[in-house]
Amino acid sequence: MKFVKQSDGKPLYQQIAKWMTEHINLGKWKEGYKLPAEEELAYQLNVSRGTVRKAIAKLLKQGLLEQIQGKGTFVRKQKISYPFAQELISFAEAMEIKGYYFDTDVVSYKVMQPSEWVQNKLEVGLYDLVYYVKRVRKIDYEPAIIIENWVSIDRCPGVDQANINEKGLFKVIEECADVELTYGVRSFAAKALNEEEARLLNLKEGAPVLYLDQQTFGPNDLPLECSRIVLRTDQYEVASVLKR
Amino acid sequence: MKFVKQSDGKPLYQQIAKWMTEHINLGKWKEGYKLPAEEELAYQLNVSRGTVRKAIAKLLKQGLLEQIQGKGTFVRKQKISYPFAQELISFAEAMEIKGYYFDTDVVSYKVMQPSEWVQNKLEVGLYDLVYYVKRVRKIDYEPAIIIENWVSIDRCPGVDQANINEKGLFKVIEECADVELTYGVRSFAAKALNEEEARLLNLKEGAPVLYLDQQTFGPNDLPLECSRIVLRTDQYEVASVLKR
DNA sequence: GAGTGGTCTAGACCACTAG
DNA sequence: TAGTGGTCTAGACCACTCT
Questions:
Q1: Which of A226, B64, B123, B214 is an S-S bond match for B186, by CB 3.0 to 4.6 Å?
Q2: Strand, coil or helix: what is B108?
Q3: Cβ of residue A243 closer than 8 Å to a chain B Cβ
Q4: B238 to chain A: which residues are within 8 Å by CB?
């Protein structure tokens, strides 16, 4: 295996992390598999040990790998479903990491004036139009989460014309705004389902669900997107691996 | 300022991270303050740039700092209250990072046989006794969270005799078991308050709250502790900063 | 003692920001 | 162009695990 510096514009350690993720998802490295030693990997991949460690660190955070000093690096037994608490990734990316089948229904979309909440999150005025989309995501044909997104049209011109289902919203935003998303702030709360949400998720009204609200930023701390996510936790776990 | 290799048994980068956290909490570095360049810091602290970067990475994860390529490293505007989604830290540690005043009521404690849930989480049998403690934590005299902990007495002999309020449960576990806690798995869900919980938190029965369940591991993936945490999110945010 | 991860160093070059 | 963070290298020594 060979990796080339900046071959696809991505840093080496990210290419390696991706390569490792694929090995795990394709079953080449099964649960409990012991990876070659860092030194050995570095030699095989023709990079330095530090770069290998950086790639491994990424998968540790996602809960895919586990390291034990003196013993080695192992593929973790996977219980975690949404690594939503750890990395700024989209639902689709999360599902890809886990190798799950998923599906999307677009409930509605429109160009609209921002509510006060959205004005605040996106740092825009009442007359700066935003693109709104509401979707239900399904895992194995079962509705699992409701996502509402608001995107500033000023900052992401053309976002309302793009095919977000094909490319993914994050990618569309990055293309329209011609920047890279750099980080996000996600907050966790609980709420009771209202009537419409209950219908969309096939649950009872009033059932407690996880509720995330999120801002996503581009360069210079400019908010490009904000969203509200309602997540049922009775079937799929939202978990994270925490290092000491 | 000088740091010494392994002076208090802690790695250099952790000592530096602590020193930085103190600077922020004591107000020496205020919101928006621009830190010296990494190179400069490394020179001042008499360590290599890599070590400085590792310390900064820790505070980035906690949301205390923010880095912008080409511009510098800055003290973040703080909105985040519980960095519970990112690092394996106790409630007390989280409050210290933020510099908040807090308070604890012990509701009950006892030595007991583990329930099935606890047997499963701690990987013990029905006749392996566990130490149980239930506490309410208050921030500024307002009840904010309920924590129930179960600790294996076999693996942490003397835990039932120790003063956990003074030292903190994590420290007591580490001393009794004579090991270091290495990582944890925390899962996020939502639930409706039952009558007792509602009373303890001064909220209405049925109110939706965040519910975390957690396992904490020592060396060799041996679970030492498990816990259930009920968290009101109406007043304090549980948030994390997510890097892309 | 051999193998492995954890930490640390010193130096290099690149990409981005700002004057 | 100077300043700053992002990435990468090569090598060193330590702490821990297992045999």
A1: B214
A2: strand
A3: yes
A4: 187-189
pLDDT tens digits, one per residue of A207-226: 999 999 999 988 778 899 99
Query: Distance (Å, rounded) from C-alpha B53 to C-alpha B13?
Result: 8
Concatenating the DSSP letter of every residue in chain A gives ----TTTTSS-HHHHHHHHHHHHHHTTSS-TTPBPPPHHHHHHHHTS-HHHHHHHHHHHHHTTSEEEETTTEEEEPPP---B-TTTB---HHHHHHHHT--EEEEEEEEEEE---HHHHHHHT--TTS-EEEEEEEEEETTEEEEEEEEEEETTTSTTTTTS-HHHH-HHHHHHHHHTS---EEEEEEEEEE--HHHHHHHT--TT-EEEEEEEEEE-GGG-EEEEEEEEE--SSS-EEEEEE-
Q: How far apart are CA A28 and CA B16, in angstroms?
A: 40
Q: Are A119 and A125 in contact (CB under 8 A)?
A: yes
Both structure tokens of B111: 């030595």
CB contact under 8 Å between B192 and A181, yes or no, is no
Q: Alpha-carbon distance B66 to B206, whole Å?
A: 39
Mean pLDDT (chain A, rounded): 88
Burial of A70 (0-12, 13-18, 19+ CB in 10 A): exposed
pTM over 0.90: no
Q: Please write the tens of the pLDDT for every residue from A41-50.
A: 999 999 999 9
Tell me if chain A has a CB within 8 Å of the CB of B243: yes
Is any atom of nucleic acid chain D found less than 7 Å from the CB of residue A152?
Answer: no
Angle at A65 between CA A62 and CA A68, to 5 degrees: 130
Q: What are phi and psi of A95, to 5 degrees?
A: -70, -35
What whole-number distance in Å separates Cα of residue A170 and Cα of residue B125?
Answer: 47
> Which 3 state secondary structure label does DSSP give B92?
helix
The H or E element spanning position B187 is: strand B183-192
Angle ∠(B27,B30,B31) on CA atoms, nearest 5: 140
Please list the rounded mean pLDDT of every run of 10 residues in chain B (244 residues). Answer: 65 94 91 95 96 95 90 84 71 78 92 95 92 93 93 91 85 87 88 96 94 88 92 82 78
DSSP 8-state symbol, B219: G
Mark the nucleotides of strand C covered by protein, meaning any atom under 7 Å from a CB: 3-12, 15-18
Give SS3 for B50.
helix
